[in-house]
Structure formats: structure tokens, C-alpha cells
Amino acid sequence: MNDKIIISFLLTAKKQTYANAKMAKAPSTRQGSKDYEYNETINGKRMTYHDTYFGKTKFIGEEVVYIDADKPEWGMNYYGAALDESLTEEVVDGILRPALMQVGIDKEVLPLRGPRHFEHDGYVYTFTVDGNISRFTGTEKIFKGGNLIYIGHCHGGTIN
Fold first, then answer.
1. Which residue in 109, 111, 121, 131 has its CB near the most CB atoms, within 10 A?
2. What is the pLDDT of residues 25-71, one digit of tens each?
3. Would residue 43 be called left, alpha or beta, if left means φ above 0 and alpha means ψ between -120 and 50 degrees?
């Protein structure tokens, strides 16, 4: 599967899973996990995006894109943590979800998390990434009043 198809699929899949607060979770695949799944057929191939994570204000997760339901093609691991202990899961979701719904709006940033810069309800979200869709590392941050209150890291790429 070429990079352009994976990028196009990710743009749709990410907006149809966690980032979209209206989307229902998929059945949990592991004890204590929260899961989301999206399926689409592209060029006669069934593509599946699966996102599974653990935790609330400190969380770890993994996204995988499968071709024909059984061949892992692309993946990303991520870890995020609220640095302000007073933040709740609802507050973190309320900041992250709108930022992640902006995935792809900034054409110079890989569609992995959110855009390079996004402001929402007094919060500032930033995302930087090095590499390409086949091999990358990235960092997202959230600021409130100029103070860093959340940081997240991701890395991943193609799988073969």
C-alpha cells in the first residue's frame, strides 16, 4: 500500500474514532482498554484502523492500520500525560478531541495527531513531527495561560 493511500485513509479514520466525541467505542480487545475501529474499502482492499489505549489523564496507546483485516501495514504508539494534577479525563478529552479533529488541516504536518498549532477555549495545542509516514517521531503539547499542562509523544511507521 503506498503512502498516499495510508495518509488519505488516516485522515478519515482518525475523524471517525476517538477524536470525534460522537463516535462509539468498539468492544475492548484487552482488559482495561478503550478501543475504536474504522473500516473502509479502498482499491478493492479492506482497510481497518484500530486504536486502543489505556488510562485517563496519563495514557498509552497504539494505532494500527490493517489491509484485508489481517495484515498490519502501519502503526503508531503514543503516550500522553497531564502535567497539572487537577486536570480530569473530561478536561483532557475536551482539549485533545477538538485538536485531533483538525488532523490534516495543516498540510505541512503529517496526519498523525493534530495540526502544528490550534487554539480552543483558552488552550493552545501544538504538534511537531520529524520524518515521514513510513518512519516518524512527534510531540504534542497543550498550554494554558502560557503554562505547559500536557505533553504527549508518538512514534511509528510502516510495518512489514
1. 111
2. 999 999 999 999 999 999 899 999 999 999 999 999 999 999 987 89
3. left
